[in-house]
Amino acid sequence: MILEIVTPRKVIKEENVEFVSMEGIDGSFGVLADHMPLLAQLKIAPLHYVKDNRTELVAVMGGVARVMSNVITIVTEDAEKAIEIDELKAKKEKEDAQAYLTKKAEIADIMKAEIQLRKALVKLRVAESSKRI
């Protein structure tokens, strides 16, 4: 089956895979070949996929997953493969977001900072998890 991960700027991944696991807003789920058609909203979370018996990780920043005819298409605002994540930059993004959350700010700004914090935490989780695989 084919996994496509698409952002407004580029195609992150397009290749044959054996299995994909991701986190939807209603819970985690996995997809194998010949899965029934599916449309799901995704959380800001790691996406795992298996290719040639190797597990790979991608930090997915929310979006939508569509499964149809052995093609899994992820459309997301942004995504980063584990090997492309700059851990120092992600740690700085995390610290900046945490610092901003301690300030008194407008609700909209707090929500933006919380999203930035979630994104940074997912990047760090993906980068750290990929070292253990």
Task: Kindly list the characteristics that best describe this protein.
about 130 residues; alpha+beta; ATP Synthase, domain 1; Single alpha-helices involved in coiled-coils or other helix-helix interfaces; 2 domains; eight-stranded mixed beta sheet; 8 strands
CATH class assignment of the largest domain? Mainly Beta
> Which value, in Å, is the CA radius of gyration?
16 Å
* CATH fold name of the largest domain: ATP Synthase, domain 1
Structural class: alpha+beta
Along the chain, the helix and strand elements come as EEEEEEEEHH
Largest sheet, in brief, is: 8 strands, mixed
- How many beta-strand elements? 8
Helix content: 25-40%
Terminal Cα separation, in Å?
Answer: 22 Å
Overall mean pLDDT stands at 93
